[in-house]
Specification:
With 103 residues, the protein is mainly alpha-helical. Helix content is 44%, strand content 10%. The protein is built from 3 helices and 2 strands; from the N terminus they run ββααα. The N and C termini lie far apart (67 Å).
């Protein structure tokens, strides 16, 4: 059974597994994709996927998280401010809390 998928708006058929050491498959930069290179790329992607953002507390620890409710209007203003300043909402809220607690 042949399956297909849409990749970058192009329909691609899965024709089963191939031996990258026998088939000539090229990466976007023109280098040859071998079984070893495919394994290396896969390991790199999996490592990045599991890593997440660095801890704000200390290396190797998860940063504590807060969850809070705000009125729609405050959320809208916060999202707009974050967009205007090209910063994340989390970054803005951390800065605001630091400023408030320091006063």
């Amino acid at each position: 059974m042949t399956e297909s998928a849409r990749i970058h708006d192009e329909q691609v058929r899965d024709r089963g597994t191939i031996d990258l050491d026998k088939q000539d498959v090229r990466l976007a930069d023109g280098t040859r994709l071998t079984e070893a290179k495919a394994a290396e790329l896969a390991a790199e992607i999996l490592e990045r996927a599991g890593r997440g953002r660095p801890s704000l507390s200390r290396s190797g620890a998860r940063s504590p998280q807060l969850r809070l409710s705000v009125p729609d209007e405050l959320r809208t203003r916060l999202l707009q401010r974050a967009e205007d300043e090209h910063r994340s909402v989390s970054h803005l809220v951390r800065d605001a809390l630091e400023h408030y607690l320091a006063s």
